[in-house]
UniProtKB/TrEMBL annotation:
Residues spanning the membrane: 377-395
Alphabetized UniProt keyword annotations: Membrane, Repeat, Signal, Transmembrane, Transmembrane helix
Species per Swiss-Prot/TrEMBL record: Streptomyces griseofuscus
Protein name, UniProt field: Prenyltransferase alpha-alpha toroid domain-containing protein
GO MF term set: catalytic activity
InterPro entries: Prenyltrans (IPR001330), Terpenoid_cyclase/PrenylTrfase (IPR008930)
Signal peptide range in chain numbering: 1-24
Domain (Prenyltransferase alpha-alpha toroid): residue spans on this chain: 68-233
Length: 403
């Protein structure tokens, strides 16, 4: 879902167009880390290991799979003693210290993944407690503890809170909730980019529309995380004026902005340095989820149709996070991820790491060990699940440039 990454560091490892979270300014870890067993993908995990693993596990659970134990164990092994996560720790057996660059985005993503897989309540609780402890006074979160709040980081934390059953509105610092923070980044309808959300104010306090931040803010304002399905229709098709917008108004106004942004071509345009007339596949996938969650079905399906036609090569080059994003987009609009432009997102994702099992097959195995196997029934269930899956948020590279 929604994070940022140091552009120079990403360029150094060739993933500026990939789905990877961001790091704050500061010393960059070595981009030469090897890929450990249990982790999905083959690219250097230094900057996105926890993020891409978390998205993968969430997508697999959404598809009805039980992720492989090795994959889940790798993620749990990345957690620091205080509950936080860094983007990647090459030596997880070593204790985290002041030099460990923990961040809210990796932590919030891991919360959603570990909650989805089940059986990790203690780890999830510690991570959520850590996130609450680093909330800023404006009610939001920045990428690193103590950094200024931004829409993307605040939104991925809201998703983690919502996924675990917490009410984001009740998580407050100095009396302010994350929804208060989102409201301050929502651009009034009568201004340029009205309805959109900014990533954060510039040095002069001005807000500039950012499609990436808007997609993140819409899902967060609706109390959703990485996984969302089509919601009820918005109260208004166009931006509706409001002094201090409610979460619902933030979502509807942001949804109106996104619907207009994809109305002509079905996709967002990349704002990465050097990009010329290049579609932004990752943020378009996030936009599909946001539009569907806000009940803008036609716009969501149009954007998904573009992805189905054009995003396959991007996903193949980018790796597990991209496949997971597309799966979550498919889920949001009720599409079939097993037939995505003639390829299977499901097969492509699962081939990049430890093989998961369908939940029905895993349950069958458990029953068989108790002497109560019903092979014919479970075979039928498995066939129905595979045939009927309709599946589908972050990650794509986030750039501070406004779009």
């Amino acid at each position: 879902m929604n994070v940022r990454r140091n552009a120079a560091a990403l360029a150094a490892i060739g993933v500026l167009a990939a789905a990877a979270p961001a790091v704050a300014a500061g010393p960059s870890p070595s981009p030469k880390a090897s890929v450990p067993a249990g982790l999905y993908g083959t690219s250097d995990p230094t900057y996105d290991g926890v993020w891409r693993q978390s998205l993968t596990l969430v997508a697999q659970r959404t598809l009805g799979y039980r992720p492989a134990t090795a994959a889940v164990d790798w993620l749990t092994g990345q957690q620091c003693a205080n509950g936080s996560f860094a983007a990647f720790r090459a030596t997880p057996a070593a204790s985290c210290d002041a030099k460990t660059m923990v961040d809210t985005n990796s932590t919030a993503a891991a919360v959603q993944a570990l909650h989805a897989t089940g059986g990790h309540d203690a780890a999830v609780t510690k991570a959520v407690d850590w996130l609450k402890s680093v909330q800023n006074k404006d009610g939001g979160w920045g990428y690193n503890p103590g950094s200024p709040s931004d829409t993307n980081s605040t939104s991925v934390v809201v998703g983690a809170l919502a996924a675990t059953g917490a009410d984001p509105a009740g998580v407050r610092k100095d009396g302010k909730s994350p929804y208060d923070a989102l409201a301050t980044w929502s651009i009034p309808c009568d201004q340029d980019g009205g309805g959109a959300l900014a990533y954060q104010p510039d040095k002069k306090g001005k807000l500039a529309a950012n499609a990436d931040a808007t997609a993140a803010g819409v899902t967060a304002a609706l109390g959703k995380g990485f996984v969302a399905r089509t919601g009820k229709a918005p109260a208004a098709d166009a931006c509706a004026k409001a002094g201090h917008p409610t979460p619902a108004q933030i979502a509807d106004n942001g949804g109106a902005y996104l619907a207009a942004a994809v109305a002509k071509s079905g996709h967002l345009m990349s704002v990465m340095p050097g990009a010329t007339d290049q579609p932004d596949y990752g943020n378009t996938a996030d936009t599909v989820v946001a539009l569907a969650a806000d009940g803008r079905t036609a716009a969501a399906k149009k954007a998904y149709a573009f992805l189905e036609k054009s995003a396959g090569p991007w996903a193949a080059q980018t790796g597990p996070a991209a496949y997971a994003q597309l799966i979550l987009a498919a889920h949001a609009v009720g599409a079939q991820p097993g037939d995505f432009g003639g390829t299977s997102l499901v097969t492509s994702l699962n081939a990049l790491g430890p093989e998961p099992r369908m939940q029905a097959a895993a349950d069958k195995h458990a029953k068989a060990s108790d002497g109560s196997s019903h092979a014919g029934v479970w075979w039928s269930v498995g066939i129905c699940l595979v045939a009927g899956i309709g599946i589908g948020f972050l990650l794509s590279t986030r750039k501070k440039q406004q779009s």
